[in-house]
Amino acid sequence: MIPSIATVCISGNLLEKLEAIAKAGFSAVEIFENDLIAHPGSPAEVRRICEDLGLRIVTCQPFRDFEGMPAARRARTFDRAERKFDLLQELGTDLLFVCSSLSPEAEGGIPRLAEDFAELGQRAAKRGLRVGYEALAWGKHVSDYRDAWEIVRRAGQPNVGLILDSFHIFSRGFEIESIRNIPGDRIALVQVADAPKLQMDTLSWSRHWRCLPGQGDFDLPGFLDCLLSTGYQGPLSLEIFNDRFRAGSARLVARDGHRSLLWLMNQAETRTGKSVPGAAPMPPPAPVRGVEFIEFAVDEAARPEFEGLLGALGFAKTGQHRSKDVALFRQGDIRLVVNSDKEGFAHSYQITHGTSVCALAVKVPDAPALIARARALLDAPHTGAVGPGELDIPAVRGLGGSLLYVMDDASGLGRWAEVDFEPVAADNPGDAGLVSVDHVSQTMQYEEMLTWLLFYTSLLDARKTPSQAVVDPAGVVQSQVIESGIGATGEGLRLVLNGSQSHRTLSARFVTDFFGSGVQHIALNTRDIRRTVATLRERGVSMLPIPENYYDDLEARTDLSLEDIDALKALGILYDRDERGTFLQAYTTTLEGGFFFEIVERNGYAGYGATNAGIRLAAQSRLRAAEEEIVVDDLAL
Ligand code: MG
Ligand code: MG
Predict the structure, then answer these.
(1) Quick one: 202 and 251 in the same domain?
(2) 418 & 553 share domain
(3) Which ligand is nearest to the CA of 607?
(4) For residue 490, what pLDDT is reported?
(5) Angle between helices 529-538 and 562-571 (to 10 degrees)
(6) Which residue of 55, 100, 387, 438 could cross-link 523, Cys pair, CB 3.0 to 4.6 Å?
(7) Which ligand is nearest to the CA of 583?
(8) How far apart are the CA of 456 and the centre of ligand 1, in A?
(9) What distance in angstroms lies between residue 137's CA and the mean position of ligand 1's atoms?
(10) Which pLDDT belongs to residue 244?
(11) Ligand 1 centre distance from Cα of residue 480 (Å)
(12) What is the pLDDT of residue 419?
């Protein structure tokens, strides 16, 4: 199947769109009628531009309100089709894309509609053109692909075929198994779009919420599986109407689009064991086994205070890099690398972002395979000796230009701590009971969220949970969880992606202050949060104060004992539970630049304390306002 994309998916004028599409590696494009109409040049010129860019025009769509017109309007409708044929020929393409009629005048009835398509097919054949018919989910008489297929079948013209669009099928909840019975050579075109499951009318859902395969909730690999049975080999074309994409970068959305199709074809192959014609070969997705280390970029001036905080959190400095100004801190299974070297990647990252997480290293079963998969998915592998040590650890460019290192046992990369670092005698206040990394929270521009969702879920064997809205005092923050390789004993990778459309939320202000997207907090597991937080407080770690009202509410809505609630209150610990267990959380106050640590005790609980997120955000905003000496009363005026 040939990856293709409709110009409507991305932002810009027609030329900008076509250039971005070609640059993203597509060789086929659907031109959306409005893009052509708004373009000042002739269709012949557009044809030439596409030829120069190596793009084949699949169709120029759509052609509306064709079938079922009453006798008085029928002739005029066929005249319109002839004009559209002229246009298609000028553009050098051969497919007339007819979507099911919305006209109030249109009459229904499968035999009647089949007659219209028989005549249209005969007229198209005289010019060597084809006709495709798509059932819109909100079509007046035809909204089901199975009815559209029956009309096409009865039209009995070899050049009249069916157009399948995954959105129109899944949004109506139609079964997809019937697709298997359609001969592949009678399918004129296949359009793919994903979408989050929402309760709304199909038209608004389609116009604003479609997204790329892998970013939503539809079973697109299952759709492709059915399609494979038909023998269809034509274009697999993205048709995405999405408000974020219209506002986003054309280049990035086009690249994400190509990536999503490569992922989709690979996903269908992995799931069915069948080969998808045209799919790019790549190793299968693998789960993350765990977080190997987290690297901080810290300059010399900020280093004493930062290392002091790590010490108070219970981290011991256990290694000094043999040749660079890089130190290794450990506690339990957590390894933090503090990089203050004056050269290299971490240094440039620090100059832009201040004290920050510049890299995340994950352990996977096979690091070279993961890098090969990244390349096949159009990710940007990072090469060169940029790791925290002498070993050339393979990496992929991640969020905000940070690095995602990948390590495995087989390639010997797991030995990095011994190879690169000279052991030093621990000199710190002692362990605080932190044992492992629970989750990493990344904050980004709202428009980027789907990009990074696709980045992680295409590269790794990962699952995503539905996006959640969290209320910040200054707006709404969208939060999206991605998990890979999560087992019973805390291994794997848990990521939380956050983004906000409102400019005044803490998430949005983080992106502004940080000069880009990045890691906003890291949550570390303890088996006894009361002991850990008590230790941190004794050591003077500044913890986020939680208002009394929160604990009064706990009393009202949970069955915790008063003693338990008092203990949580004394330490500023938040509480949540689900059907599987309990979750306790506490936060350090934020460092300059907005980063903070979270301490969690997870007892079988599967979530991330979303019910408490609003309380945390309000507490952080209050502190921030106090720091900025903004008097709340003044704001109220
Ligand atoms: Mg469509
Ligand atoms: Mg968290």
Answers:
(1) yes
(2) no
(3) 2
(4) 65
(5) 40
(6) 438
(7) 2
(8) 27
(9) 10
(10) 86
(11) 28
(12) 80
404 and 451 both lie in a single domain: no
DSSP string, 380-403: -EE-SS-SSSSS---EEE-GGG-E
Strands 187-192 vs 235-238: parallel, antiparallel or unpaired: parallel
**Residue ranges of the chain with pLDDT lower than 70?**
384-391, 412-414, 489-490, 629-637
Q: Which residue has the tokens 């274009």?
A: 235
Distance 523 CA to ligand 2 centre (A): 6
Spell out which residues have Cβ within 5 A of ligand 2, the ion.
523, 598
Give residue 368's pLDDT. 93
Question: How far does residue 191's CA lie from ligand 1's centre (Å)?
Answer: 6
What is the 495 CA–ligand 2 centroid distance (Å)? 9
134 half-sphere exposure, CB direction, 13 A CA radius: 25
- Ligand 2: centre distance to CA 443 (Å): 11
- Ligand 2 centroid to residue 608 C-alpha, Å: 6
The DSSP bridge partners found for residue 471 are 476
Supply the CATH number for residue 562's domain.
3.10.180.10
Residue 281 lies in a domain: no
Give distance in angstroms: CA of 596 to centre of ligand 2.
10
Element (H, E) at 59: strand 56-61
Together in a domain, 241 and 300: no
Write down the pLDDT at residue 636. 47
Question: Do residues 229 and 344 share a domain?
Answer: no
54 Cα to the center of ligand 1, angstroms: 24
Ligand nearest to the CA of 522: 2
- Whether residue 392 is found in the same domain as residue 444: no
Q: What is the DSSP track for 348-390?
A: HHHHHHSSEEEEEEEE-S-HHHHHHHHHHTT--EE-SS-SSSS
Q: How far is the CA of 408 from the centre of ligand 2 (A)?
A: 27
The structure tokens 């007046």 sit at 140
CA of 162 from ligand 1 middle (Å) equals: 12
Domain that holds residue 372: 290-423
Given 389, 423, 457, the domain boundary residue is: 423
**Quick check: is 284 in a domain?**
no
Residue 407 lies in a domain: yes
Lookup: tokens for 307: 């290392």
Amino acid at 518: G
Residue 283 lies in a domain: no
> pLDDT value at position 385?
53
Q: Which residue is it, tokens 């801190």?
A: 329
pLDDT, one tens digit per residue, over 435-461 is 999 999 999 998 899 999 999 999 999
How many angstroms does the Cα of residue 490 sit away from the middle of ligand 2? 15
Within this chain, do residues 322 and 257 fall inside the same structural domain, yes or no? no
**Locus of tokens 């994400």:** 256
Number of domains composing the chain = 3
User: Is there a single domain that holds both residue 263 and residue 296?
Assistant: no
Q: How far is the CA of 587 from the centre of ligand 2 (A)?
A: 9
Contacts of 218 (CB under 8 A, 6+ apart): 166, 167, 170, 194, 195
- Give the three-state DSSP class for 186: helix
Q: Residue 601 Cα, ligand 2 centroid: separation in angstroms? A: 12
Q: How far is the CA of 134 from the centre of ligand 1 (A)?
A: 7
